[in-house]
Every structure is written in C-alpha cells, then in structure tokens.
Amino acid sequence: MIDKAKEILQGTFGYEEFRPLQQDVISNVLNKRDTLVIMPTGGGKSLCYQIPAMIFNGLTVVISPLISLMKDQVEQLDEFGVPAVYLNSTLTPDEYHYNVSKLRAGEVNLLYLAPETLMMDGTRRLLADLNVQCFTIDEAHCISEWGHDFRPEYRQLAEVRKTFPDAVCLALTATATPRVRDDIQQILEMRDSAVFVASFDRKNLLLKVADKENPTDQILDFLYTRPKQSGIIYCFSRRQVDELYHDLKAEGHSVRPYHAGLSEKDRTSNQDAFIRDDARIIVATIAFGMGINKPDVRFVIHHDMPQNIEAYYQQIGRAGRDGLQADCLLLYSYSDKQKIQYFINQKEGNEKKVAEKHLEDIIHYLEYDGCRRKPLMKYFGEEYKKDECGMCDNCLRQKGDLQDYTVQAQKYLSCVVRTGERFGAYHIADVLRGSKAKKVLQLKHDELSTYAIGMEWSKNQWIQLSRLLIRRGYLEKDADHGYLKLTADAAAVLKGDERLTGVLDRTQTAGKGESRPKTSSDVENRYNEHLFEELRKKRKELADEQEIPPYVIFPDTTLMEMSYYFPQDEEKMIGIYGVGSAKLKKYGSPFLKIIREFCEENGIDERSGAITKKVVKTSSKQKHELVGEEYNSGKSIDHLAEQFGVKSATILSNLKKYLDEGNSLIPDGILEASELSQRKIDEVYASMKKVGPEMLKPIYEDLDKTVDYNELRILQLAYMAQNGN
Questions:
Q1: Integer CA distances (angstroms), 451 to 416, 418, 419, 439, 612, in order
Q2: Which pLDDT tens digit goes with each residue over 109-129?
Q3: Is the domain covering 522-614 a CATH 3.40.30.10 domain?
Q4: Whether the predicted model's global pTM rises above the 0.85 cut
C-alpha cells in the first residue's frame, strides 16, 4: 500500500518525496494501528491522514477545533481533486444538506468536524450509518490540561471513539511535552499506539529576542527591510493591537487588526484579507492564528512576551510553512513579565502551579545566552546536539550586540551636509552607493566627495543607519518634506569626539565579514524575482476569480521553482515542486504562457535538462560546462571541489574557461571563496580597473606584492564575472 501512497504523493500532490516520518506514519495508519504524531507546524501532518483517506475504502473523519482550517483544507483538497467536505455552523441549511447527501452517497474521502458538531445527536446518527475507517484528532494537545490550549470538550472524544471500534485512531499535534503525550494516549485509550516524534527544530526559522525599548520604531525598522512580505504581529491586549494597527497604517503599511473586541464579521473579513494577500500584515492578540495555513508568512513578531513556550512555539510556527527562511522577533521587557505574573496571581491551585512553571520556562528561554534552540527543544524533550544553529541571534552575534558605526555615521552625516541638507534618506543612500540614478546625475551629486564612498554597505543598511542617527538625536527629519538635517550634537561625531554604537537589523543578509543566517535552498537564492512577481500577479488574479487564497493554487515555493528552472512545456512543468496532475491540467497553461513570454522577451533559456524531477542529464557535457552550470545553480566552490574530487584552484580554472566561452557567472559565490576583507577587495578591484584584469603579474606588482596569486585568481574571476568579462 505504501507504493500507492507514493503514487498519490507525486501524482496528486506534486511532491517528489515524503518529509521525515510521513512515510512511517502513513504506513502505520494504513495497517490500522493507532498512531500519535508529534510534528512541528509546517512538517506535513495533514498528508499523514489525507493520503490514507484516499486509499481507504471508506470515510476518514477529521476532528479539528478550527473552523477556518476546515474551510482552508477542503478548498486545497478540492484543487488537488480530492473529495472532501466539512460540517459546521458556517454552512447554510442547503449547503449542510448537500454535504450530508454526498456523505451518504459515498462520494467523499474526508469529513472535517468541530468537536461540538461531533457531539450532536444528528452527527452521531449520520456517522453510525457510514463506513468510518479512520478517526483523526487534530490539535490533540487540547485534550491535556498540561497543554497550553486545554479544551474540556476534547475529553469526550474518547467516548465517541468507542463508537467506531474498527476505525484506526490518529492523533496529531505540533506542540506536546512528554507529559502531554502521555495524557493524550491515556485519555484516548491508545494503549498499543505507535508514537512518532519529529524533531522540533524548524531550521528555516531565524529566532531573535531583542530588548523592548521603543517597540513601534523597532517594528517599523524591521518592516522597512521586508516590503511585500506577509507577517503576523502579536500583542498582549486589544488596546495595544488597535494602537499599533493605526501606527502602521499611518506609515503606509497594508495592515489589518484582529482581536475578540471586533465583530465576528470584521474578524472574518480581516482574516480573509490576510489569507488572500489583500492585506500583508495582521496585528492581533493570541485569538488569531489557530487554523491559519498560509504557507508564505515570512515573519512573526511578538510585540509582547507570550505566556508560555508552547504558545510561542505554535505562534512562530505560523511562519515559514513553505520551508523558506522566515524571521521570528520577540520584543522583551521586564514589565511584560510583571504583567503575566499579575494574571497568574489571580489563579489558584494546580492551575496557578502550571502557569508558574510555564512562566519560569519561557523566562529561561528569553534570558538564555547560548544557542536558542537548546532550551527551546529541551522543553519538548529533545536534545539539540550542535553548539550553534546559525539561525538565532545568539549564534549570529559577534562580540556582543553593539557594533561601532562611527565611520559609517561620519560618511552619512558628511553626505547630508554635502547635499545641502535638502534630501531624504533614500537619496543620501543613493549618493553613498554611487548610484547612476537620473536625479543623482542631474543634481551633479556624482561630483561630490561623498559620492560612492559607501559601497561597503547595501542601500537598506544605510537607511537603517539613518533611522539610528535620528533616534540618537544626530539627525532630524523635516516634517513637511522629509529632508534630513544635522543637529548640534552631530558635530561631535563628525570630529571623532563621540562614537556611535548601536544595533542595525542583522536578520537581513549581512555584509562581508559579518555573520550570515543560513538560507534554505539554491532556488530561494537564485530565482528570477521579476518573473516571480509576474507569476504572483497571475496567481492572485486566478485566486480572486475563484474566491480562494492564492497559495491554494500554488505556494511561493512552486513559483520560485518556475522562476528558477523556466519550464517551457507540460512535461517539464510536472517536475516542478507542488505541481500535480490536477493542478497542471487546471493551471498549467496560463503559467506556462507567462514563463514562455518572459523568457522570449529577456533571452532566457530553460535550465538545460534540470527540471524533470530535477535530474540533470550531463553525459554529453564537458567538465567545465558541468562545473559552470552546477556553480550557477548555487553550489559553492568548496562544494564543487569535493563533488568533482579536485582542488579549489581547478574549479576556478574550470569556471574561468566557462566564462571565457561567453557564459555568465554569478560573482557573489566566487567572492565567498576569498579570505580578504572588503577593504582589501576594493583595493584589488581598483588595481584591476587601473592596469586591466587580464594579466595577474601587473596587478601583483601594482599592489606591492601584498596579495598572493591564489587570492588574485579568485578576485580576477569575480571581477570579470561582475563586469561582463
């Protein structure tokens, strides 16, 4: 039966292989053995019962407390061509009766129910007449009072389960400590059940805790570097939600509020706007998020401290479900701790004892100064064995949080003065970065002494610095025009009498010499952003026509692969992640049309033979061609040296030959092989510009023999790749 499951995985859902533990769980369920699954959000729990449901000759009943999730999952299954329905209070009488008739006719594989609906006499009578093969309980932690979201009605599920003695029981949750797992098994009487516990390490989440100083400014700084990204911001109170919502809206952000004080109509409308990409950001209390299956949430911010680790873990778990990198920022202050302690003091007995332990555990996590994954995973009974994860603030930190930005501040302040204190942060950054923008050239700012003196930083980093200078009182912003002007205090920094230290947002890709967060895949780093945006527009258009969320058609990961591989026909399109036969038939044509037109207009070829199941057919290619293509797909020089069993110098030689034949190379990956500082690299580049990059000896002599030939070969290749050979 597992072979049939693999066929469904590839043919229906468009995935090449199972994620960790999925195959074992599915095999266990198909063999009718009770199963408890602890799998992080985004780990693929849904397929563990959806695939068996398509194989069983009967009905799979899914119990979920989340009405929004039912609707979302049924819509997604419909897109995959899988028959599923739900019964809950949101349906009209006609819709309810129609779904019941489909169930009685045996036309449905999956039925989604809320616990309250399951307890109704009418529902129990309906199910008694049906062939129930699998009884699935989602969010199973709700059964345990030691779980963070205990729901008494879940205790009754054990009795209902006895009504279906021949149905296998599958319980799933993303957050369960060992104590909660034992509770689930005992209450559901899963005596002989198999327990599958996936790693709690969500490797693509960048975890960061920051002292809460000026939270609105901190959040605005964070959002500035993430335009067009979807995210959730959690606040402790309704009042805080409303205040932050109005602040962000005033700054031009696409944002909606969500809390229990809003009408049900407004809450539903705001949630739908977020799910359908009509609003980028949701500011919410913890009432929001349960059942949100939006895969492309790129960040979760906690404006206030969560009450416990389980809630925190579940909330950050709403980010990055598509496997791409997502940022999780928690702003922490002592007053937040006092606020939670106040509410705990209102409790009594065991309830107070549980809450006290939860607070103690999350404070330990927030104040921990090592790798954050260690205390987080230990809480769930798992040991994190690495010393560093490379994806949390503590692991990325270098010599403390504070950095010395005095030199950059002097450059920035000088440029503000040289341009007459009549321009905003964007223009100053352009001048420092040596931009050829029309405005810069018209104003002759390319002739200023500060022009192009800031090439070591990205534009975003200079903007972040301008915000820091404003907060520290060295710059002020003209209220009418947004011009930047120096304050009297700026003179001390310009003279070097005062130093500027602070923190820029380091969750972005760092500059050379700084720590970099790990990224998820070559595709994520190298896809064509312009094509990706065109495909996103088409996806939104099709989704609006059908009144479904855009990700139901294709997730971002699928569009990224299309924008990386450039498939030109259906045979190649079926090899793209997330494109199964049903979706290919329904959506293949409009997306292929956009890809073909884009490639034709921009002279882009389909990535040769790399698409169909991502298998590269290389037999007819010469070695330097293989090396060039593998390098451009995102592999490092060290990786290629190991792959081909040669030295790095040989890889560089192959890449040089590949470049000399008229092919292009991505410069950034070549520079990663260099051990030189950015200052030294700039010196070498200046020498190459002066004497020419073709011969290394003149460059070696020009630099007074201070840079060895190995480094010069690396930089020669990077320079030629950057400047079109």
A1: 11, 10, 10, 13, 48
A2: 999 998 888 888 899 899 988
A3: no
A4: no
